[in-house]
Amino acid sequence: MRTCLRILAVLAAASVAWSAGPAIDKAKLEAYLRYAEGFMANVHFAIDEPVPSPFPNFYRIGVHLSTDAGARLDRVYYMTADGRQIVNGTIWDLNKSPFEDTLDHLPDNGYAFGPADAKVKLVIFSDFQCPYCREFAKTVRENIPKNYPADVRVIFEDFPLDAIHPWARAAAEASHCVGAQSVDSFWAYHDWIFARAPEIKPDNLRDKVLAWAKEQKLDTDKLAACMDSHAQADAVKTAENAGKALQVVQTPTAFMNGRPVPGAMKWDSLDSVIKLELAGKSGGKPPVQNPAQGQTVP
User: Fold this and answer.
1) Beta-carbon contacts of residue 25 (< 8 Å; ≥ 6 apart)
2) Where residue 53 falls among pLDDT bands split at 50, 70, 90?
3) Which CATH number goes with the domain that contains 227?
4) Which of 10, 124, 166, 235 would you label with 279, given CA atoms 20 to 30 Å apart?
5) Per-residue pLDDT for 295 more than 50?
6) How confident is the model at residue 281 (pLDDT cuts 50, 70, 90)?
């Protein structure tokens, strides 16, 4: 009995130690990373406490970099349990998805279309003022419902780039105000604002949104109050923070079953990635890329 209790005590202590993470000297870690990665003195560091990762004996450490000019970059490192070694890159477990850590941190609460149990989930971090996002949104909306109505779920997440897009955040907040009235209204707004983006400016966004909402038979009084009070600011910030934790720095950035899908990918290329994911889910053979012609061979 005493032996059993002793074993349980050891296991409990080990569990506490694992969940707590290694003690780290943040000044030493910063100095090491500055040297190893070549970060100059004008780069400011903010280092998170280590947290458990999906990989045994490794902890996840978020490092947030910034400059006085407003540039930001978020990096992820993995530290061994003894706090002595750092992995700069991705750890793969051959028995799990190579995107396991990304999947653990992907949000799943944005506005979505497609079945909840779809084999492929495409999470898109986007900015309503971004012309490349507009192009990618058109590709996704025109092709996925038509070609993969049962196999792909698309989830929209906000990532407004304030430094270059002055009305993107207000448009994102408005999208949540619209979506609070109905999910279908959100997607109608999504398509409308991307289509009309060249006409929108910071000083006419409110009026244009309310005029559109009136045409859609939405409650414009409720919508105006929501927009004016910034009632949905936290929802936008939550999505934005999730993107930063995933090291998103540009829009559009998407993740398909955790796989990074950078930029405004054309449909032929996006279709190939979807086929690759579906083949992986079914144990089938993925499509082969013809290097000579740049075409996908079924």
Assistant:
1) none
2) confident
3) 3.40.30.10
4) 124
5) no
6) low
Residue 200's φ and ψ, nearest 5 degrees, are -90, 140
Neighbours of 218 (CB within 10 A): 20
Distance of CA 115 to the CA centre of its chain: 19
**C-alpha to C-alpha distance for 139 and 263, rounded to whole angstroms:** 12
Q: How far apart are CA 152 and CA 117, in angstroms?
A: 9
Q: What is the C-alpha to C-alpha distance for residues 126 and 107, in angstroms, rounded to an integer?
A: 13
Instruction: Kindly report the three-state secondary structure assignment for every residue of the chain.
Output: CHHHHHHHHHHHHHHHHHHHCCCCCHHHHHHHHHHHHCCCCCCEEEECCCEECCCCCEEEEEEEEECCCCCEEEEEEEEECCCCCEECCCCCCCCCCCCHHHHHHCCCCCEEECCCCCCEEEEEEECCCCHHHHHHHHHHHHHHHHHCCCCEEEEEEECCCCCCCCCHHHHHHHHHHHHCCCHHHHHHHHHHHHHHHHHCCCCCHHHHHHHHHHHCCCCHHHHHHHHHCCCCHHHHHHHHHHHHHCCCCCCCEEEECCEEEECCCCHHHHHHHHHHHHHHHHCCCCCEEECCCCEEEC
Structure tokens at 34: 């500055």
Entry pTM: 0.74
40 with 67, same domain?
yes
Q: Do 36 and 111 have their domain in common?
A: no
- Domain holding 257, by residue range, is 106-262
pLDDT of 12 higher than 90: no
The 10s digit of each residue's pLDDT in 89-129 is 777 888 888 888 889 889 988 999 999 999 999 999 999 99
Contacts of 229 (CB under 8 A, 6+ apart): none
Work out the burial of residue 70: count CB atoms within 10 Å of its CB; fewer than 13 is exposed, 13-18 middle, 19 or more buried.
exposed
Peptide bond into 252 cis (omega under 30): yes
